[in-house]
Amino acid sequence: MLVKYYYLNTFFVQYNIKKMKQSQLVGRSIKEIPKDEESLNAQLLIRAGFIDKVTAGVYNYLPLGLKVLNNINQIIREEMNAIGGQEILLPVLAPASLWQTTGRWDSFDVLFKLKGSGNKDFTLNPTHEELVTPLIKKVVFSYKDLPVYVYQIQTKFRNEARAKSGLLRGREFLMKDLYSFHIDEEDLDKYYEEVKVAYRKILSRLEIGHLTYETYASGGAFSKYSHEYQTVSPHTGEDTIYTCKKCLVAVNKELIVEQPDCPKCGNKELTEEKSTEVGNIFKLKTRFSDSFQFTYTARDGKEKPVFMGCYGIGPSRIMGTLVEIFSDKNGIIWPKSVSPYDIHLLDLTTNKQGEKVYQKLSKSWSVLFDDRSESAGKKLKDSDLIGISLRLIVSNKLGNKFEIKLRKDEKSQIVNQDKLMNFLTKYFKK
Ligand code: ATP
Ligand code: MG
Predict the structure, then answer these.
(1) DSSP reduced 3-state for 64
(2) Cα separation, 350 vs 417, whole angstroms
(3) How do beta strands 172-182 and 343-347 pair?
(4) pLDDT tens column, 259-294
(5) Less Cβ crowding at N or C end of the chain, within 10 Å?
(6) Rg of the chain's alpha carbons, rounded to an integer?
(7) Protein residues with CB under 6 Å of any ligand 1 atom
């Protein structure tokens, strides 16, 4: 136990407590709005030096961008582990034969198709049911081996027609996909409800819980409903939902004809809103186990089909959504939980007084230190654009005091060193 704790601690130190001098940071802020980007999230993320465009729907992630993405992934990972998910990694590349087995080689409309050696057909997986089902078939034989919950955080490829929304609709994007395998429908139903609770925790840690509706959507051929997690986004939402404010539940546009009132409380006063789907959960039942003839030996000795569920969430789309929702005319306003650094420390002194503060604070928190020889005006502007949730200023004018400003607040406060340490300890308390 001690060893484990030490290991986790090291992990924490390596990945979370990081410091960086802005003069060394790869990626810099850009004044001009990129001409070929229509979406606010891509404009701001490019201008602030988080991402860089390669082509429509394909982006490079710079150090700041990768930090945010990893913070989002880590929140998702922790909640998936908490409901028994075991992390795996499936390949990006797959032979056409797997997709032909399920009949989706011809029916999945945004599938990238490519030729390998010997003219063999391959795809870059847009989702991974075709990979995970035969994999789990190899390790499950009897009811004793079930249930199984596995997930990954992996790059997906979809040849999306409308790749104009920055990180909201990538042609290459990140997905967390969890798959569950059960002895029967009842067990699947039970786990499905557990995943809903985990998703609520993820959304609230990302600070979009209050804006995200569990949305009833069509369940396809096998289930009455599936559920989408739709985050209200008035300017860029591609989807239309009908929300019940009492329940944080909504109905998808395609379903509203059949289901005109709240499926939970019967409320008839639903509000039409624009939204972005950040996650999606689905009872697959035996759709894929049938294709791969994945059965198990039940307690009574009979061979029975395995029941499956799949549960997606889009970390890169969430990153774009956060920018769409949390920004102002000056830049991004990251939620504290995913901010690329805890503290943005600005040295506005003429004699580099900030260095000592930087060394001290970075022992406890992650700090981006603006040590550049730029004007105070430029440093303040860049800091607003980057959007780290807490800014700290050291300047000659302030003497031994510090100015603290939360990015989301208008007002700042000036404090002495003791007050500063108290403030930070309280603000970052888990
Ligand atoms: P949409 O209807 O928006 O295309 P989808 O129904 O195709 O989404 P799923 O196949 O269920 O989405 O994928 C699971 C999750 O992956 C989605 O909820 C979303 O968060 C994310 N996602 C899907 N497509 C993209 C994309 N092109 N770019 C970024 N994220 C995506
Ligand atoms: Mg899609």
Answers:
(1) helix
(2) 20
(3) unpaired
(4) 999 999 999 999 999 999 999 999 999 999 999 999
(5) C
(6) 24
(7) 127, 158, 160, 169-170, 173, 175, 277-280, 312-314, 316-317
* Residue at a domain's end among 287, 304, 328: 328
Q: Mean pLDDT check: name the lowest of 217-221, 289-293, 425-429.
A: 217-221
- Ligand of minimum distance to the alpha carbon of 110: 2
Tokens of 111: 């599938």
- Could you say which ligand is closest to the alpha carbon of residue 170? 1
Kindly report the pTM of this predicted structure.
0.95
Taking alpha carbons only, the member of 333, 347, 341 closest to residue 409 is 333
Q: Between β-strands 367-370 and 343-347, what pairing exists: parallel, antiparallel or unpaired?
A: parallel
Atom of ligand 1 nearest to the CA of 278: 20
Q: Is residue 2 part of a domain?
A: no
Are 295 and 354 members of one domain? no
State which amino acid sits at residue 209.
G
Residue 385 pLDDT > 70: yes
Q: Is 234 exposed, middle or buried (0-12, 13-18, 19+ CB in 10 A)?
A: exposed
Q: Does pLDDT of 12 surpass 60?
A: no
